[in-house]
């Protein structure tokens, strides 16, 4: 997957042959981005803030307005404004290593959850949630919520079992 900041900057940024040379195009882009602000993931908003489109004099208010809204959305999500390029640099190797360690831990958690027949939440996950909140929210929860094939399978099994329970209790008709 290409780096969102590089892609956004090369197409809409301050390059010589930007697509933002017309007021109409820039207005359309800013309105689209503004409408999608609640659906965009934080790293895209960070890229938009860090590499804003080249402003035309008549459209500077649109760009500034979008950036203010994007910053307020990031504030709401409690995410920094700074875009972190995770595709290079030695600092990012450490970040990627932390994510790979978290992924290994999450796989262990998921295995124990599956071993318990998806009945109880593993203690390790509860401990992370209670005692290591930043690690839990920044690493484990982010990986847990990411779409994965086995998550969908386990969720389907869990949903099927819960529907059977509700059906047996007479709460839901088949």
UniProtKB/TrEMBL annotation:
TM region positions: none
GO terms (BP aspect): interstrand cross-link repair
GO cellular component annotations of the record: Fanconi anaemia nuclear complex
Signal peptide positions (record): none
Domain of life: Eukaryota
Residue ranges of domain Fanconi anaemia group A protein N-terminal in the record: 8-79
PANTHER family in UniProt: FANCONI ANEMIA GROUP A PROTEIN
Protein name as it appears in the record: Fanconi anaemia group A protein N-terminal domain-containing protein
Organism of derivation: Amphimedon queenslandica
């Amino acid at each position: 997957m290409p780096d969102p900041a590089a892609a956004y900057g090369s197409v809409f940024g301050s390059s010589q042959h930007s697509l933002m040379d017309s007021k109409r195009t820039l207005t359309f882009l800013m309105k689209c981005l503004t409408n999608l602000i609640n659906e965009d993931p934080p790293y895209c908003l960070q890229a938009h803030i860090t590499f804003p489109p080249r402003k035309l004099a008549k459209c500077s208010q649109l760009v500034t307005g979008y950036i203010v809204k994007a910053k307020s959305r990031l504030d709401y999500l409690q995410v920094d404004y700074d875009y972190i390029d995770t595709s290079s640099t030695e600092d990012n190797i450490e970040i990627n290593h932390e994510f790979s360690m978290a992924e290994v831990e999450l796989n262990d958690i998921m295995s124990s959850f599956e071993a318990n027949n998806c009945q109880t939440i593993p203690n390790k996950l509860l401990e992370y949630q209670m005692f290591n909140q930043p690690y839990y929210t920044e690493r484990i929860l982010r990986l847990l919520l990411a779409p994965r094939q086995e998550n969908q399978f386990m969720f389907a099994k869990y949903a099927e079992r819960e529907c059977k329970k509700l059906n047996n209790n007479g709460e839901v008709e088949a």
